[in-house]
Each structure stands twice: as structure tokens, then as C-alpha cells.
């Protein structure tokens, strides 16, 4: 599978790990550590993506991007955000100039 459906399926797998045994699942271990640790991991993976993009090549960027997506999905599951909410927000922005969209956000 090579489209965004894989993210929806991964999200479902991640959400199913809530309450699982942390000794048996890395995802369950993240949930057990809580929102702050999960958010920290998202930040770490974001930084690793930047480093890969600037100095480590595309293969490393692909790998780090996958890690970032995974940890972001864990954060969404922890906070109750559903992927369809993100997809709807992105769809809402489609066709809008990025500059106009950003200006609209800073006005509120």
C-alpha cells in the first residue's frame, strides 16, 4: 500500500495499543509515559528529519519521516485527534494560497 490509507490503518493499530502491556509493545510504552513524552518524541523525530534532509540523504530522510509520522499518529491517538480531522483540515486548505491561509490564521 502506497497511499495515505496506510496512515489510517497505522492509526487504528496504534489506537488499539492503548492500555496494552508496555512490556510487550513500544506503542503501549509510549502511551504509558504520557502526552509529554509522546510530544517530546514528535519533536525529536522532527529534528531528525531536518538533519537528514540537510546532511544525510534521501534514504535517511525517508526513514526519519516514517518515524515522525508514527510518533505523530501516537500523539493524535493520545489526544483523541482522528486522522479524518487532519484530512478535512488539509482539504479545507486546498486551493488556498499558503500565504493567504497563514495570514488568516494570524488574524484570529
From TrEMBL:
UniProt-listed SUPFAM superfamilies: all-alpha NTP pyrophosphatases
Pathway(s) where this gene product acts: Amino-acid biosynthesis; L-histidine biosynthesis; L-histidine from 5-phospho-alpha-D-ribose 1-diphosphate: step 2/9
GO cellular component, one term: cytoplasm
Keywords associated with the record: Amino-acid biosynthesis, ATP-binding, Cytoplasm, Histidine biosynthesis, Hydrolase, Nucleotide-binding
Alphabetized Pfam families for the sequence: PRA-PH
The EC number(s) this enzyme carries: 3.6.1.31
GO biological process: L-histidine biosynthetic process
An MF annotation (GO) of this entry: ATP binding
Alphabetized InterPro entries for the sequence: HisE, PRib-ATP_PPHydrolase-like
Subcellular location: Cytoplasm
Reactions catalysed, as given in the entry: 1-(5-phospho-beta-D-ribosyl)-ATP + H2O = 1-(5-phospho-beta-D-ribosyl)-5'-AMP + diphosphate + H(+)
CDD domains to which the protein is assigned, alphabetical: NTP-PPase_HisIE_like
NCBIfam families per record: histidine_hisI, PRK00400.1-3, PRK00400.1-5
Family stated for the protein in its record: Belongs to the PRA-PH family.
HAMAP family: HisE (MF_01020)
Cited PANTHER family: HISTIDINE BIOSYNTHESIS BIFUNCTIONAL PROTEIN (PTHR42945), HISTIDINE BIOSYNTHESIS BIFUNCTIONAL PROTEIN HISIE (PTHR42945:SF9)
Protein name: Phosphoribosyl-ATP pyrophosphatase
Provenance organism: Terasakiella brassicae
